[in-house]
């Protein structure tokens, strides 16, 4: 199994957990759990593959849908054991982001894409699944929360990979650096309140 396939499997499973946890907060039935888990798990990778004009990974290998469905069933029967499902969603989502961004970077590198495309594919793979999840479940998308470091984390992680590749480092090391930067920034945002400045409206000049 290739490194990209392993990253995709890990990303699918962890993102599916977050989708199922959001479904539990919305009190959906088991079919709803599976649906939300699947769109969360494969959304970012689907956008990535369509843009890169490569076979969509879960269409080429439906086992990814099975993995996401298993995660949904696990959460359906265990979510009630969690003290704070929202807090759990945030932390698992951070881990999923740190796996999905390197998966997007690896896919773009495999297609011999130039560095701006590598950056965009890393961000798209990491962010679009969670965005779909939150929109469908009528939640405020994590990627758009005021001042929240989320897309920034994905962009910085993909950027770290691009820098390491430019310096001649092997792809596995670049992907590890990508994951480390992405996770460190996301955890810092949640644990220490790291934020970007936000726009504040001012009265127009007379």
UniProtKB/TrEMBL annotation:
Name used for this protein in its record: Uncharacterized membrane protein YeiH
Topology class, membrane: Multi-pass membrane protein
Cell membrane keyword on record: yes
Family to which the UniProt record says this protein belongs: Belongs to the UPF0126 family.
Organism: Litoreibacter janthinus
One cellular component term from this protein's GO annotations in UniProt: plasma membrane
Every Glycine transporter domain range: 6-79, 90-164
Annotated InterPro entries: Gly_transporter (IPR005115)
Membrane found in the keyword field: yes
Main location: membrane
């Amino acid at each position: 199994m290739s490194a990209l396939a392993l990253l995709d499997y890990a990303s699918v499973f962890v993102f599916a957990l977050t989708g199922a946890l959001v479904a539990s907060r919305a009190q959906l039935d088991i079919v709803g759990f599976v649906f939300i888990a699947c769109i969360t798990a494969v959304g970012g990778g689907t956008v990535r593959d369509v843009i890169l004009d490569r076979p969509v990974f879960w269409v080429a290998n439906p086992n990814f849908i099975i993995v996401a469905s298993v995660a949904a069933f696990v959460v359906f029967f265990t979510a009630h054991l969690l003290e704070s499902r929202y807090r759990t969603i945030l932390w698992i989502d951070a881990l999923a982001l740190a796996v999905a961004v390197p998966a997007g970077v690896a896919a773009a590198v495999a297609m011999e894409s130039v560095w701006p495309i590598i950056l965009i594919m890393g961000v798209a793979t990491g962010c679009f699944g969670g965005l779909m999840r939150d929109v469908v479940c009528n939640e405020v998308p994590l990627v758009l929360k005021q001042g929240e470091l989320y897309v920034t984390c994905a962009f910085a992680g993909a950027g770290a990979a691009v820098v390491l590749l430019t310096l001649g480092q092997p792809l596995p090391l670049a992907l590890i650096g990508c994951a480390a930067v992405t996770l460190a920034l996301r955890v810092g945002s949640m644990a220490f309140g790291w934020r970007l400045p936000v726009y504040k409206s001012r009265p127009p000049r007379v």
